[in-house]
Design goal:
Elements: H1 3-31, H2 41-48, H3 53-60, E1 64-67, H4 74-79, E2 83-86, H5 92-98, H6 109-120, E3 129-132, H7 136-139, H8 141-146, E4 156-159, H9 168-189, H10 195-220, H11 226-234, H12 241-251, E5 263-268, H13 277-284, E6 288-292, H14 312-326, H15 336-343, E7 351-357, H16 361-376, E8 380-386, H17 393-404
Parallel strand pairs: 1-2, 1-3, 3-4, 5-6, 5-7, 7-8
Helix pairs in contact: 1-2, 1-5, 5-6, 9-14, 10-12, 13-17
């Protein structure tokens, strides 16, 4: 091994230790919180076990499929015999490893961290990938990953997302994409996704959606702090959905409502473990998050459908419509539903905190567009721009505390 390769090996080893230390530190803090209860331990253990597809496979006994973004119908993936594994990383150390000078300075930090995790572990390579084309960073992710491994994906499928929702042309294009995904899955596994298999998977995710809905109701009542809600949602892709659902249902009876004060709605760029900096700062400033529309939390998947008396084609079509209409990603051009979904819940909060990761251009632009209609309704609006770093924490806390005093 030459000197350059030796230095790279040592760097990867040191980064791997730092990543694990980040995870262990955050999980230890969670276990030491005064609001910790035994029902949360299942979700903590999922995150502690490793955010990797091979760990999911060992835990659940089924092959994993790598997924980025939540537009791909999970029920189809499950019916093909896979467990959908949503790739994410909130690790500061992995972000630093992914930002090695070959990427633009304002690359999405979450995808930089994904690249860093990818360099640390090659378990992502030998599995199928499905990538919805939600933003330009995700479109370029394969190129980013091929910098480190030219053969990173043996099976790879683009799911081209129309950037319009309304209109027959957009719906027909998306339906064709979903049927293309079905064909890819069947070809990859050799399994025919027939009506019976698909209906069984629809039922599995329907029960998960019901559990998530009840958990959301408890949060609105002040019984689930935002940090714990994020832990539960982030862990959704780390076990079989049946097991996750059972754990949520077992937790629900122990949740009791508390006083809601300084209630806010949290929107914007996704928040992934272990980077819970902003949620913890909101909590420190005395703000209560009673709702959110993050694709890493409240929108982790769009909800169930009624599969009774439906043909195979009808189920696929309804699923396609559910995921397309239920998605509130700012990459859509006709996205009035986004502001309507926030304001529709306006009686449950007094302000909106909008989180923007530096380099996350769709949400950065959206923050400018949403501020005026939100404040026109008499609600307060706070935009927080940050990166995968701890250095700005005190400055952000000062701004959050000042915002809280206006509520």
């Amino acid at each position: 091994m030459n000197a350059q390769n030796q230095r790279e090996t040592e760097r990867l080893q040191k980064t791997g230790v730092r990543v694990q230390n980040e995870i262990s530190r955050e999980l230890e803090a969670l276990r030491g919180r005064p609001d910790h209860m035994p029902g949360y331990d299942y979700f903590i253990d999922l995150l502690a076990g490793g955010i990797r597809p091979d760990v999911l496979e060992k835990r659940a006994g089924k092959p994993a499929l790598n997924l980025l973004c939540v537009q791909a119908p999970l029920e189809l993936i499950h019916a093909a015999g896979f467990l959908p594994f949503k790739i994410f990383s909130g690790s500061y150390a992995a972000d630093a490893l992914g930002a090695d000078g070959r990427l633009p300075a304002l690359t999405c930090p979450m995808l930089r961290a994904v690249r860093g995790i990818f360099r640390l572990n090659d378990s992502f390579s030998g599995r199928p990938w499905v990538l919805p084309t939600t933003c330009d960073w995700i479109v370029n992710l394969p190129r980013m990953l091929r910098m480190d491994n030219p053969q990173f994906a043996k099976w790879f499928h683009w799911l081209e997302l129309p950037h319009l929702k309304d209109g027959d042309a957009a719906r027909e294009r998306w339906l064709a994409e979903v049927f293309g995904l079905k064909k890819f899955l069947e070809k990859t596994t050799g399994v025919k996704i027939d009506r019976k298999r698909l209906a069984a998977s629809v039922a599995v995710y329907g029960r998960a959606w019901e559990a998530l809905t009840r958990l959301e109701e408890r949060r609105r009542a002040g019984a689930v702090p935002f940090v714990w809600f994020l832990i539960i949602a982030n862990s959704f892709f780390l076990d079989a959905p049946e097991q996750w659902t059972n754990a949520v249902n077992a937790l629900l009876p122990a949740l009791r409502g508390n006083e809601n004060k300084n209630r806010v709605f949290f929107a914007g760029s996704p928040v992934f473990f272990p980077n819970f900096k902003i949620p913890l700062l909101l909590e420190e400033a005395g703000l209560t998050v009673t709702g959110d529309d993050l694709c890493s939390s409240g929108r982790v998947f769009p909800g169930g459908i009624n599969a009774e008396a439906s043909s195979e084609y009808e189920m696929v079509a309804v699923l396609a419509g559910r995921y397309h209409e239920g998605c509130l990603c700012p990459t859509f051009a006709d996205n009035d539903r986004r502001i309507n979904s926030i304001l529709g819940d306006a009686g449950n909060f007094e302000g909106v905190v909008f989180h923007v990761l530096k380099g996350c251009h769709p949400y950065d632009m959206e923050s400018c567009l949403l501020e005026e209609p939100i404040t026109r309704r008499g609600l307060k609006f706070l935009r927080l721009e940050t990166d995968y770093t701890a250095e700005d924490g005190r400055n952000l806390l000062t701004r959050i505390e000042a915002f809280g005093q206006t509520l």
